[in-house]
Amino acid sequence: MTTAVGADTARKPATMAQALGRALRDAMAADPSVHVLGEDVGTLGGVFRITDGLAEEFGEDRCTDTPLAEAGILGTAVGMAMYGLRPVVEMQFDAFAYPSFEQLISHVSRMRNRTRGAMPMPITVRVPYGGGIGGVEHHSDSSEIYYMATPGLHVVAPATVADAYGLLRAAIASDDPVIFLEPKRLYWSKAEWSADAPEQVPPIGRAVVRRPGSGGRRAATLISYGPSVPMCLEAAEAARSEGWDLEVVDLRSLVPFDDETVCASVRRTGRAVVVHEAAGFGGPGGEIAARVTERCFHHLEAPVLRVAGFDIPYPPPMLERHHLPGVDRVLDAVARLQWEAEWTEGSAV
C-alpha cells in the first residue's frame, strides 16, 4: 500500500478489530471489484463493528446487508466471483456458517479446479470464531477442521494486529477462496501499529516463531494459531520457573501449512505440544502431530502431545473456562514430555 504524502505514520495502540476494518476499507478503496456482503454489515457495521462506516463511504451496492440466509449469501458470492468481482463475505458467527457448507464444498472449493484454472474464485469468507467471550452455543465454535479438510480452500487465522491487516489484504487479493478465521476474543487485543504505514507481514502459507527458544536439553515447541497464541506465550513465560525453555510457533496459515518452519523448530527442541480450542478427536492437532512425527521422527525425544478443547458441543458460558485450553493445561502437557530424568528413572526399572 502506498502511503499518502504527509500521512501520519506513527505507531499507535490499535485493536485487531480496527486493523480488520482498515484492511477492508483499504482493499475497497484500492479495487472497485471488492464488495462486502453479509448480515448487518451495512447499516449496523457488523455485530462486532468490523465493517462500520463502509456502507457510508462506498455505498450500499458495495457494502450490502443480506437476508439471514447463509447458503444464499455464499451462493450469491459465487455468482459475483464468476462475473469478475471479489466478494468478501461475513458469516457473523462461526456456527452460523454451517448452512452454507453445500455451496462452500460443492462450488467455492471446486470451481477453479473444475474449470482447469480458467475461472478463479476470489472469495474471502470472514468467520468470527472461537470462544472466550461468554457466547452461547452456535456463537463460540472452532470449526477450522471442516475447512482444512476441504481441498481447494485456503485457511488462515491471525493472532496479532499486524497479521489481521496483512493477512486479510492478502486473502482479498488471492484468486483462490480463503476462509479467514477471526478470533473473537482477540478483537479487542491491542498492539502498536500504524494504519497509514502498516508493516509487511509474511504471506499466507508461512508460520512465524513468536518466541524463540534456545534448543537446549529442557526445550520444547508450542505450536498454535489464532486465539491460543497469546496464551501459549504466557505459558512459555510461566514455564521458565520450572526450568523449561519453550519456543512458540504461530502457524498463521493452516492451509497451506508451513512444514518447513514448524519442523525446523521441532528439530531444534526435540519435543512439541500442539494447542488449539477445537476438539481433540479428529481436530487440527491430529493432522499437525502426524505431519511433525512423519518429518521429525528421528529428532523427537517424546511423542507429540495435544492440548485441545474437550470432545463435547460448546458448553454454556459459565463453564467455558473449563473447556478452553489454558496455561495450566499446557504446562501439564509439557510436564508429560518424557524429560531426561523421568526417562532415566523409567529405564532403570
UniProtKB/TrEMBL annotation:
Cofactor field: thiamine diphosphate
Domain Transketolase-like pyrimidine-binding: 14-189
Keyword vocabulary terms for this entry: Oxidoreductase, Pyruvate
Gene Ontology MF terms in the entry: pyruvate dehydrogenase (acetyl-transferring) activity
Regions annotated as coiled coil: none
Protein EC: 1.2.4.4
InterPro entries, alphabetized: THDP-binding, Transketo_C/PFOR_II, Transketolase-like_Pyr-bd, Transketolase_C
Cited Pfam families: Transket_pyr, Transketolase_C
Protein name (Swiss-Prot/TrEMBL): 3-methyl-2-oxobutanoate dehydrogenase (2-methylpropanoyl-transferring)
